[in-house]
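Lecture notes, unit on protein representations.

Consider one protein chain, 293 amino acids long.
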Amino acid sequence: MKIGMHVSAAGGIINAVERAHAKGCEVFQFFDRSPRGGKPSYSDEDVVEFKKLAKEYGLEEYYIHAPYYINLASSNNRIRHGSIAILREELEAGTRLGAKYMMFHMGSGKDYEADANVANKRNANDANSYNMKAVELVVKGIDEILKGYKGSCELLIENSAGAGKILGAGFEEIAVILKKIKSKNVGVCYDSCHGFASGYDMRDKKTVKKTFDEFDKIIGLDKLKLFHLNDSKTDFESHRDRHANIGAGEIGAKGFEALINYSKVKNVNAVLETPDVSDEKPLSLNKLLKYKQ
């Protein structure tokens, strides 16, 4: 498992490589555009320099994160089709930059009534139950994004914490979407904080094994391409997305050490998005690197 961080690209994408190197990352992740809007603003020359530096620093595997405002399940055609267009642009940008993966949040099914008959079995009676209409729109959107796509950057669905009707909280729902889409080249980025908040424990060796045995049974570990490793400020099954520094949250250091050394996932790379990734001394990163056996 190679471990790195989400770094800022403020001032230009080349700065993202410089920051990743300065912080001791083995891999890294960044936004190639503002997460809240706007277009990417880098030249062909910037891309050449970016790749050159990444190779020079031994940081040849990196990832981009899509903007936060994506919603493939929106009932508003402008939002839904805009999300499709942006995600296709981001995939093409990832290919141009040489990024291995581009991950995104699917959005919310809040525009539709929940249908308990097809809901996530884990949460069949709560607010995270979903309507197949929302799922079908996500499937249709992903198919449209990947239509005719020949690039090298792979699309990853990120799991959610399950607040309200945000899609992707349960393994069953993600599995349904992966099964229904036409492409078989879509994977999963598993966020530890989101998973913990939505009811998947990983506080010790036993619960790590249980969670990823369940992931394997429902989705398949071959679909697990990347981790976002974040501790959780909120309690188990809180359905709240609040990242904490590694070992300073409700998951705890023992859980992350168990995950990093769990044989079935130890070759899946990881990125931190914890609060201290922006500090001069990336304590969470240093801690995780020491856990590797």
